[in-house]
Every structure is written in C-alpha cells, then in structure tokens.
Amino acid sequence: MKRMLFAVCEVAGYFAASVRALSEHAEVTVWTKLKGNDVEAALEGHVRLLDDTAVPTVDALLTALGGHLPDVFFCGGWADRRCLDLATRLHAAGVRTVLMLDTPWLGTPKQWLNRLVGRVVLRPRFDFAWGAGEPQVGYMRRVGFPENRLRTGVYAADSAKFSALYAPDRDPWPHVFLYIGRYVSVKNMRRMERAFLRALDRMPESDWRLCCIGGGELWEERTQHPRIDHLGYKTPQEIQRFIPQTGCFVLPSVFEPWGVVVQEAAQMGLPLLCSDAVLAATDFLRPGENGFRFDPRNEAAITEAFCAAMLLPGEALRAMGRRSHALGMAYATADWVQRALSFLD
User: Fold this and answer.
1) Residue 27: beta bridge partners?
2) What pLDDT shows up at residue 236?
3) Phi-psi region of 299 (alpha: psi -120 to 50; beta: other; left: phi over 0)
4) Going by C-beta distance under 8 Å and a sequence separation of 6 or more, which residues neighbour residue 46?
5) To which H or E segment does residue 242 belong?
6) Lateral strand order in the sheet of 176-180
7) What count of other Cβ atoms lies within 10 Å of the Cβ of residue 60?
8) For 297-323, how does the pLDDT look when each residue is reduced to its tens digit (9 = 90+)?
9) Concatenated DSSP letters for 250-314?
10) Are 96 and 343 in contact (CB under 8 A)?
C-alpha cells in the first residue's frame, strides 16, 4: 500500500473520519499534537498517530518513520517552520508534497506581501495546493501554483454520521433555529440574537425559537429571553440527539474561512441561514433553494433572513431540507478519499 503522511495541528472529528476511510486504501500516519480524546481513540488500529511533543523535530519524525518515506506528504498550513522544513526534505527526496489550507484570499496588504513571499517559500516546497474551496485556491493561484496543481475539497464532513440524521419527512417541521459554535465576537451572536427578537416583534404569532449550543469568553453576555435557549457546551453525541428537534441552521459569523459545520448541517437536511462571510456557504447554500444569505454587519438584513424562514410553510422547509441534503452529500467522505488518492497520479 502507498504511504501517506499528514502534519496537522489537531485531529478534528471530520478529519478523523476522512483519514480513517483513507486508511482502507493507504498506510496513513498523522503527526499532530495529541490530546487523548475520543476522536483520536477512534483511529487506533487504523491510522498511526505520532505526538509532536514526543516526536518534536523533523529528524525525530523521520526516525520514527523507520526510513520508510511517504509517497505523499500533506502539510496542514505553513505557520509551523518544522512542517516547511519537512516539506523541503521530503520534496528533495522525491516525495509528492501537498499544502493544505483554509485561508481565503481577501486582498489585504499582508496577503499581497505573502503573495510574493509565497513564490519563494511555498512554490519550491510543494507540488500541489489543496484548499477548502475556490477562495483558498484563488490565494494559491496568486502565489504561483499552476491550475493543474490546484485542488479544492480539503475538508469533508463526516457524511456517514450526519446523513444518518437526515429526516426529510418530519411533520410538523420543527420551528427551532439552531446555532452551534463558540461564544466569541467573530461569531456575531449579539447581532443574531437582536435580529431574531426583532423578527419576533414583526411576527408576534410565530412560535419559532432560537437555540444556541456552545460556550466561550462571551457566555456571560448572552441574551436572556424566553424564546432564546442557551444550552452551553454539548458533546457531539448530545448534539446528535438534539438535532431532530431543530428546523433551520444559523451561522452569522463576520469571519469564517470555511465552516465544516455548514456542510454537516446540510447533510442533516436543515435549511441554512448563513452570512456572506461564511465561505462554506459558497458550496452548500443556494439562496432561495435551501436557505438565505445576509450581510453579517447589517442587523436589518439578518432580521429579514429570519423572517423569510419563519414565513415558510412546512412543505417549503422540507423541500429546502432535501435540497440541503443533496448539496451536502455532493462531496462526501468517499469523495475526499478519492481526492487524496488523486495526488498519487
């Protein structure tokens, strides 16, 4: 079997599902900061995990590999100098090197500078760039990667887990908006909460609720209202049990480089309300077909999106849910595996 090496900051649930599926086709090693959680435990016997605190240097990693170099090296970003050094050494040894990224092109002064630096730092080290979507690929295109060396789809939701929650024929359709995420300023929760209450003022007969799951530094600033539920942190298993009670997913972020949670919600068959800053929505939300987009800094626009969803009858919400599911499943775990294997060609 071919050998594949990944260097990532941590093992998220969706990444674990992807590399576990990949392990059926290749020998997979992941160099990461281990946290001893259930996600990592689920990979035992399938994927070799190397803790970067126990294997802290490139030389230590190469020793741990026992002289068996990978056929492909996947590097999760360029912030860690060790990963760049590893890419340099493996590339020189004939290993195919792939830069993985979720940083979108925003046209900031720093990115214009990085565009020039990247031509010196990244292009000589990496054969391919694998971005989350077109905004990320656009960045690497400016760095100098040719079109045939660019791929999208570096993230894929755990399609088996989330499609199992798909229930398109629920009747009545639950009138519960769902937010899942951190309680931090970039997630834009205060505007979301105010906009939801403004929507209720405009539609006093509505029975919709807003449910928020998560925690963070702004927890104490959460809006207290009888129609807004703050459930705090929930385990993935607890969230999965709660999903059947919800009817529409909301993500109002002012900055979201991608947002795998959007694909997860789509695979579950939920209509979507996403801000224009949520870049995953470019793939998984078609305005008017399975949800609505809005300007995250415009509270009136967020209110309009809430009202648009609240006005829909059950059959229209079910139709949106079916469309979400189709969009979410258009790129599943098996597709990610084939994309990863394509770097061998």
Assistant:
1) 3
2) 86
3) alpha
4) 20, 23, 28
5) helix 236-242
6) 228-232, 209-213, 176-180, 248-251, 272-275, 291-294
7) 15
8) 999 999 999 999 999 999 999 999 999
9) EE--S-BS--HHHHHHHHTT--EEEETTBTTHHHH--BTTTEEEE-TT-HHHHHHHHHHHHTS-H
10) yes
- The answer for 224, left when phi > 0, alpha when psi is -120 to 50, beta otherwise, is beta
Q: How far apart are CA 43 and CA 83, in angstroms?
A: 22
- The helix/strand/coil state of 113 is helix
Contacts of 291-296 spanning 24+ positions with Cβ under 8 A: 291/248, 291/320, 291/324, 294/252, 296/188, 296/191, 296/252, 296/253, 296/254
CB 294 within 8 A of CB 305: yes
**136-145 contacts: CB < 8 A, separation 24 or more?**
136/101, 136/102, 136/103, 136/104, 136/105, 136/257, 136/258, 138/104, 138/105, 139/101, 139/103, 139/104, 139/105, 139/111, 140/99, 140/101, 142/105, 142/115, 143/114, 143/115, 143/118, 143/119, 144/118, 144/119
* DSSP assignment string, 226-238: TTEEEEE---HHH
- pLDDT tens across 2-32, in order? 999 999 999 999 999 999 999 999 999 999 9
The residue to which tokens 């006093």 are assigned: 204
> Which residue is associated with the tokens 């259930």?
38
What whole-number distance in Å separates Cα of residue 2 and Cα of residue 95?
12
The pTM assigned to this predicted structure is 0.95
Structure tokens at 149: 């060396």
Residues 6+ positions from 236 with CB-CB distance below 8 Å: 13
d(CA 49, CA 45): 10
Q: Check residue 237 and give its pLDDT.
A: 87
Residue type, position 217, single letter = E
Helices (H), 56-144: 58-64, 81-92, 109-121, 134-143
Do 149 and 128 touch, CB atoms closer than 8 A? yes
